[in-house]
Design brief:
Growth Hormone, Chain: A; 2 domains
Amino acid sequence: MATEIKTPLRYVAILGFVGFVTSFGAHIVAVNLPVYAAQVGVGVAVIGVLIAAYDFAEVFAKPLFGWVADSQGMKRTMLAGIALFTLASLSYLLLPPQLLIVVRFAQGVGAAALSAVSLALVGRYYSSQRGRAYGIYNAIKGAGYVVSPLVGGLIVLKTRFAMIFLAAALIGIVAFLVSLLLPSEASAAGDGGELDDDELSLRALVGVFRDPELLRWYAVIVVNMFFVGILFGFLPVRVHALGYGPAASGVVLSLVALSYLLIQPVAGILADRAGAATTVRIGLILSAASITTLALTTDVPFVVASLVAGVGIGIVWTNTDAMVSELADPRRLGATMGAAGSFKEIGDMLGPIVIGLLAQAFGLSTGFIICGGVGLLSLALIRRRRVSAPGIRNRAASGS
């Protein structure tokens, strides 16, 4: 029977801070790209490419680094990812500004490694109370999305654009140092036995994308990230359409981000008690119904619906992580969580594109209603957990 690693809460706090590196690094640059564009003399299309370069790197690199971590050691792989992110950030201070796209891609590759593996390590360290651990992890990581625009704006205001890369590098250095305090792990075989040559092959990596039980949860992840892209990308558009100014939009978005962050530890605790699948259903219902409601309300009801949407998204975010890690074959936990991370990025990119096309064709209100309906339909993806799922099957065979 597998031996559970007894881990204090400070370990998930460290892993959450590692996750914070990528959210902070992504957004401290992204929100200040208009300043860069003005300085270098490029248009808005280049801003879009620079934002996409970071996400594009993560889509493809997350499962690859997760696969590497399964065979070469999770902690080692995560430290390598932090180091790459830090060096890539510092390189902007030495390179011509026109090579920012290279810097962003390299940052994204490093972020993919540290993000996917830190997520997997939460599942490895916390086989019990997994929901609470993922809730804490995601709340700390998500704080990067909240504080980075403010910090980045102040840095650019007081110094210059290049200094935000120094700030990102300093965060990376701190994360590297505190990660040294985590328990060493030579490989991911600790919970599932020795890995044979077949399990180290690319076929094993492909396998985490083909498991039918995991595919259902990957699809739920895509839908939830679809909602994230809609809420944080097009909520300001809806606020503007209702006749409110930028200040009102900023207040609403801040409140939504706060509700999304604060609910995650609570949602994780509830998942440990009631089951991750049950809480995910509740979260999907809340977010889908609320996004639909955004098309039909104004004033206080509109703000309430926005907050409820943030709560629903936060619940699903945390507990799909917990569910996927539980279903994963312990020997392939890194690759599985990396695959889940890729699907997050795909959903995040699809949301703004889809609602933008729908809004263009049918109007913004209709776009919100259609997208909310898609969320309700996704409830059909969640069904009773089957013992045939790899992680459940392995634990049943070992008697745990």
